[in-house]
Amino acid sequence: MAKKVVNFMCTAFRDGFQSVFGMRVLPKDYFPAVEMARDAGIRYFEAGGGAAFQSAFFYCNENAFDVMDKFREVAGPDANLQTLARGINVVGLDSMSTDLISLHAKLFKKHGITTIRNFDALNDPNNLIVSGKAIKDAGLQHQMTITIMSLPPGCTGAHDADFYEQRLRAVLDADVPFDSMCLKDASGTCTPAIVHETIKRMRKLTDKPISFHTHETAGTSVLCCMSAIEAGADTIDLSMAPVSGGTCSPDILTMWHALRGTDYVLDVDPQKILETEEFLKNALSEYLLPPEAMKVEPRVPWSPLPGGALTANTQMLRDNGILDKFPEIVKAMEEVVRKGGYGTSVTPVSQFYFQQAFNNVMQGPWKKIAEGYGKMVLGYFGRTPHEPDPEVVKIASEQLKLEPTKESPLAINDRNPNKQLAHFCDVLKKNDLPITDENVFIAAACGDKGIAFLKGEAKIGVRYKEKAAVKATSGNFDVTVNGQSYQASLDGDKIIVNGKAFNVSVAPAGQAAKPAAGGVGTEVKSPVPGTLTKLLVKEGDAVKKGQQIAVLEVMKMESPVPSPADGVVGRISVRQGEQVVTGQLLMTLN
Predict the structure, then answer these.
(1) For 214-227, b where at least 16 C-beta lie within 10 A, e where not — what string?
(2) Which DSSP state fits 347?
(3) Do 421 and 444 contact (CB within 8 A), yes or no?
(4) What pLDDT does 487 receive?
(5) Which of 125, 145, 482, 515 has the fewest beta carbons closer than 10 A?
(6) How far apart are alpha carbons 68 and 181 in whole angstroms?
(7) Backbone angles phi, psi at 237, to 5 degrees
(8) What CA–CA distances, in Å, run from 74 to 78, 80, 81, 481?
(9) How far apart are CA 235 and CA 378, in angstroms?
């Protein structure tokens, strides 16, 4: 009897890169591997969307639309190129208005995309109706998606086969047009039994193709893929080393091997896939590959953290020198999920969960509500699968100064002038930038960082392995001044010479160092680690207590820095764009 061919989509060049490198990979380094994958017979690729859109502008100094054009050129005219969209959020972390949702689909069609996998992290059918229609109206294939995960042990009320069937029926009843369906487990935590039962029920409700997506984060991805195939799934998502396994989807070769001796087969040449993987490993050999990206994490079922969010966040913790806090943050995430309404841990909700867990660890439980998490429990992203904890809703309402709502977020956005396409045309005009469809969407999806890219001010933020450095055998340095040798050591803003401490000020080459502020003043210190994205005052400005004087970005959240007192800005000790740590002096007030 002939074996059934299992189709697969190669996720290496989008989801794989996101799960390992936070999507900070330069296209020039991986396009040759796309060509090899094409020659190995792969015709179905994940080619963009999701985090890949913003990351191109934020970290790679590349226009995501140009990258999609090049992907189509390399993959060939017949390849099925698929991108990821987040319902009414499309490729942003915030929801958009109807006109921008439509523009997203039209532009992705224009730039070579075949299919858009469209999901909503809350599985709110209302968030899929307009976005799904826009995808079909643009002439694209719509892969309508149900997002899945396991709840922490002891939680009930969602994320079982009954819940997924109910949500699927609601989408079908809403007459959302679609060409195929997907069951998407970004955290890799759904059990094989629930995957099998859910796909069996999906198969009874539709005769259209069904895809299954998972990750190896909890160690069960191959079992789940086998369960999906046996239940009737037509396609599974697979990746290639070095961005497979661990936080990523299972490897093509791993799945090929797992199917040996069964009634199923992957139609691939394993030798050519092996050669492509070896090439990709070498092409990415200089990139920093975080060790946690390759691990299976037993705690993940308690704190469902997707690979794309896991490594992106650990890298930001590394950047801020607080990676030691990661185990505590992951542990805190369990309570955040339990009290947050059970949204699926996939972008943007996975970021909301992690950001709130981060705040709970760094600033105390529920002392600081992350904006995204707060707006989610208040209803501004749609209806959560389960009612959020009433006390958390109350705290979020008080801190964000927003009332809970049951109104459609799309209706709210469509009457907000700052969410409209015309508003972003004005933003481009104010910045003397050409008003094109692409630029309008970049401004809407990428905000200030998108504008910085369009103005030629973006920088490359790719992380490479650190080169071996020569280290002193002690913390001391030999310093020669006017022919006299001294032994010195650095301690924060002080230099210790012969046991005596001296204040120092260091400036970039070509700039004069500013003298240390004299007299008694008020110190403004960083409340959290992060990047100083905005300095809202300059030296000599008069400020009032509580006035915002700077903005830090920490874990993709903006954290305003208020003035602790009335005064006049004296010395500013940091520059915009600089990384700071908790307690670091930002400026003084006289």
Answers:
(1) bbbbbbbbbbbbbb
(2) T
(3) yes
(4) 58
(5) 482
(6) 23
(7) -95, 130
(8) 11, 12, 11, 59
(9) 36
Q: Quote the pLDDT of residue 48.
A: 96
pTM of the model: 0.84
What is the Cα–Cα distance from 423 to 279, expressed in whole angstroms?
Answer: 45
Are 231 and 3 spatial neighbours (Cβ–Cβ below 8 Å)?
Answer: no
The beta strand positions in 75-175, using DSSP E, are: 80-85, 115-118, 141-147
Structure tokens at 194: 């629930």
State the Cα torsion 239-240-246-250 to the nearest 10°.
40
Q: How far is it, in rounded angstroms, from Cα 212 to Cα 117?
A: 12
Tell me which residues of the chain have a pLDDT lower than 50.
468-474, 481-484, 505-519
Structural tokens at position 315: 């890298």
Q: How many CA atoms lie within 13 A of 61 on its CB side?
A: 8
Helix (H, G, I), strand (E, B) or coil at 15: helix
Distance CA(319)–CA(284), nearest Å, equals 20
Strand arrangement, sheet containing 500-503: 477-481, 484-491, 494-497, 500-503
Nearest Cα to 424, choosing from 414, 411, 415, 437? Answer: 437
Check if the beta carbon of residue 90 is closer than 8 Å to that of residue 102.
no
CB contact at 8 A, 239 and 12: yes
pLDDT computed for residue 575 by the predictor: 83
Please state, as a whole number, how many other Cβ atoms lie within 10 Å of the Cβ of residue 480. Answer: 8
3 state SS of 151: coil
Residue 75 CA to residue 272 CA, distance in Å, equals 16
Contacts (Cβ under 8 Å, ≥6 apart) of 392: 339, 340, 366, 377
Q: To which residue do tokens 């396009």 refer?
A: 31
Question: Based on the number of CB atoms within 10 Å of its own CB, is 538 exposed (0-12), middle (13-18) or buried (19 or more)?
Answer: exposed
Q: Which fold has domain 519-589?
A: OB fold (Dihydrolipoamide Acetyltransferase, E2P) (2.40.50)
What is the reported pLDDT for 171? 87
Q: Where are the domains of the chain?
A: 4-410, 519-589
Q: CA angle, 264 as apex, 258 and 265 as ends, to 5°?
A: 75
Q: Tell the CATH topology of 4-410.
A: TIM Barrel (3.20.20)
Token digits of residue 448: 């200030």
